Amino acid sequence: MTESTKAQIAVKSTDEKTTLYGLTLEELESFVKTLGEPAYRGRQLYHWLYNQRIAEIDRMSNLPAGFKRKLEESSKAGRLGIALKGLPAQDGTQKFLFELEDGLRVESVYLPDSPGDTACISSQVGCALGCNFCATGKMGLYRNLSAGEIVLQVLEIEWLAGCRLSNVVFMGMGEPLHNYDNVIRAVRLLSDADGIGLSARRLTVSTIGIVPMIERWREDNPPAKLAISLHAATDKQRLQLMPVNKAYPLEMLFKSLRRLAHVTTHTITFEYIMIADFNDRKTDAINLGKLLKNIPAKMNLIRLHPTDSEMQPSSDEAIDKFMGYLVAEGVRCTLRQSRGVDSEAACGMLFAQEPRPSN
Ligand code: SAH
Ligand code: SF4
Asked: Which residues are part of the catalytic machinery?
């Protein structure tokens, strides 16, 4: 049993009940054995929780009454509280503020039909990395989310929106690779064909570029795509936006990404926020072309979304021109539609107001 597995099983509330969401099939089988039940009851429980998306034990119709009673006494689903259900933006995008057991809050976003119903979920409460364009970065880090809290954001959105999600992106609050073990566990739970059943091609983990963890990602080869938040093509520019570039400068990052490109079947996506007169000039496109040479990559351009930073988004005209320069450099690129800006549900606008730890 790995350290993280032990940690997960040890996630018990003050009333010593075992939290079910976040446990793997093998762990549920072990858990039901501690209740004196055969392992196949664990498989049934897994099927109900993840495949059928049923969190209430009394609704698990093929479980015998005695087993249900034991489950009620010794476990709980671990559901998230709903602190706020945002009003849908004009494009249908809707933000949810979920309350965790300790009173802290995280945000998740539902983006209907973009294409397919998509959830943008959080991996941490806050973030330690302090990128200067990002609202979450201003909060600092409160704590990592457990795998159960990550998976439940997806299920809670399905329950609240009455939908079946087909895409999940880790682009909400937090740096997923700073919470590596729980994020990988959640990715495996989300993609298990016998469970939640999302396709690996429709699961994207976005990272600012934590090099040692990208190395682990390459070794573990989890069933998800990786997206890199690049935002600048030189160290000098990147450092002005994100302090993390000091620890992991571009040369180090791209060495690691080239190694990853050798083994992964997925295209690596690069995200690039368009900031007026900062990273939207012809020279920037030429530098990007050089950087992305020999990497099977796709560039996702994103308009800077307004936070309280001084920086301004590039104009539509500047973005158009920039895309032309990139194409001339042989870089594949698309402009990501900025969704949910009017309800502050867009990327980089996630800032859980007044996180309130209960202690
Ligand atoms: N920490 C991870 C994932 C969360 S941020 C990361 O940085 O990749 C998800 C995406 O939103 C990242 O690409 C991030 O750069 C982007 N983002 C953050 N603030 C933004 C803003 N103000 N406007 C547009 N995109 C922003
Ligand atoms: Fe953290 Fe990502 Fe925001 Fe940077 S952009 S502060 S890494 S959440």
From this structure: 107, 347
pLDDT tens digits along 25-74: 999 999 999 999 999 999 999 999 999 999 999 999 999 999 999 999 99
- Rounded Cα gap, residues 67 and 331, in angstroms: 58
Q: Could you tell me if the CB of 207 is within 6 A of ligand 1? A: yes
Amino acid residing at 322: F
Domain membership of residue 143 as a residue range: 81-343
**Pair 270, 230: CB distance under 8 Å:** yes
**For ligand 2, is residue 99 a contact (CB within 6 Å)?**
no
Residues 225 and 266 in one domain: yes
* Each residue's pLDDT tens digit, 308-340: 778 999 999 999 999 999 999 999 999 987 666
Domain membership flag for residue 358: no
Question: Quick check: CB of 107 below 6 Å from ligand 2?
Answer: no
Closest CA to 338 of 329, 330, 347: 347
Cα 300 to chain centroid distance, Å, stands at: 17
Q: 299 CB less than 6 Å from ligand 2?
A: no
The domain boundary, picked from 76, 101, 125, lies at: 76
User: Which of 178, 206, 257 to mutate to test ligand 1, by most ligand atoms within 8 A of the CB atom?
Assistant: 206
Query: Is residue 280 in a domain?
Result: yes
Beta-carbon contacts of residue 279 (< 8 Å; ≥ 6 apart) = 231, 232, 233, 237, 272, 273
Atom of ligand 1 nearest to the CA of 133: 22
**CATH number, residue 16:** 1.10.150.530
Cα–Cα distance measured from residue 4 to residue 175, given in angstroms and rounded to the nearest whole number: 18
**CA 2 to the chain's CA centroid:** 23
Q: Three-class SS of residue 183?
A: helix
Q: Which residue has the tokens 């083994």?
A: 263
Shortest-distance Cα residue to atom 6 of ligand 2: 137
Residue 349 maps to a domain: no
Cβ contact 254:297 at 8 Å? no
